């Protein structure tokens, strides 16, 4: 355990008025974290195959996401060209060859692989999975895929393969745990919105105004 983490946990224990847990309890907790047990999973979250795909599309559309069906990645530049109305701002990409190697030049699209900043127009990313029960995308951060690409541009485009669509959140966390747990996991359902001010729905309040899903 790092010194910083030890200090944080020590302060939490002090606030709770207790010391470290007995060794037996620590061992039980470590065992539970090593092999997480599922709780009750609702029937809708157990959908598979085409039923899961249909449910994802329905739920994502209800949440104001835009679904574009494609048969190959090579189709994406033409679609994104129709989304861009400002050639002065580049399309932001993660450093992932399957996206950076697409023919962006033919579509007259300038690309950049960097973290997103305030004022950026559009980004394109991949994802871990799509959760059918709520039409939610699951994305994780990494050295080549900064989380800012998911949150700052006005338009966030995501590539989702049909075989990545799963029933529920339990399946999603199983996928996340297969590799080293990332620093950040984002669950994204539709574009950003808020109705906090005078109960008027405002799109893009805390993130992208549009969420475009390329369903491959």
Architecture overview:
The protein is of the alpha/beta class. It folds into two domains: 1-35, no CATH class; 45-215, 3-Layer(aba) Sandwich (Rossmann fold). 30% of the residues lie in helices and 19% in strands. It contains seven helices and twelve strands. It has helices at 3-16, 23-34, 49-62, 76-83, 97-100, 148-151, 169-177; strands spanning 66-69, 91-92, 111-112, 122-125, 129-131, 136-140, 155-160, 165-166, 185-188, 193-194, 202-203, 210-215. The protein is globular, with a radius of gyration of 20 Å. The model has no long low-confidence stretch (mean pLDDT 89).
Order of H and E elements: HHHEHEHEEEEHEEHEEEE
Superfamily (CATH H level) name of the largest domain: NagB/RpiA/CoA transferase-like
Gyration radius over CA: 20 Å
* Main pleated sheet: 6 strands, parallel
- Indicate the overall shape: globular
Gross CATH architecture of the largest domain: 3-Layer(aba) Sandwich
Helicity, in percent? 25-40%
* Main CATH class of the largest domain: Alpha Beta
Report the uncertain regions. Answer: none
Strand runs, count = 12
- Biggest sheet strand order reads 1-12-7-4-2-3
Distance N to C terminus: 42 Å
Question: What is the fold-level CATH name, i.e. the topology of the largest domain?
Answer: Rossmann fold
- Mean pLDDT comes to 89
Output the number of helix runs. Answer: 7
Percentage of residues in DSSP E strands = 15-25%
Structural class: alpha/beta
The overall number of domains is: 2
């Amino acid at each position: 355990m790092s010194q910083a983490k030890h200090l944080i946990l020590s302060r939490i224990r002090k606030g709770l008025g207790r010391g470290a847990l007995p060794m037996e309890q620590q061992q039980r907790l470590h065992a539970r974290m090593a092999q997480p047990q599922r709780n009750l999973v609702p029937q809708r979250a157990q959908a598979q195959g085409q039923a899961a795909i249909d449910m994802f599309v329905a739920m994502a559309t209800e949440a104001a996401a835009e679904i574009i069906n494609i048969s190959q990645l090579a189709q994406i530049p033409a679609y994104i060209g129709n989304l861009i109305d400002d050639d002065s701002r580049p399309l932001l990409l993660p450093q992932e060859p399957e996206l950076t190697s697409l023919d962006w030049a033919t579509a007259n699209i300038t690309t950049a692989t960097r973290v997103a900043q305030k004022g950026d127009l559009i980004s394109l990313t991949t994802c871990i999975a799509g959760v059918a029960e709520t039409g939610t995308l699951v994305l994780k951060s990494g050295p080549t895929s900064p989380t800012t690409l998911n949150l700052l541009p006005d338009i966030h485009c995501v590539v989702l393969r049909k075989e990545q669509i799963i029933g529920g959140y339990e399946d999603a966390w199983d996928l996340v745990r297969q590799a080293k747990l990332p620093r950040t996991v984002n669950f994204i359902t539709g574009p950003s919105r808020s109705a906090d001010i005078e109960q008027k729905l405002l799109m893009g309040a805390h993130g992208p105004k549009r969420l475009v899903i390329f369903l491959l």
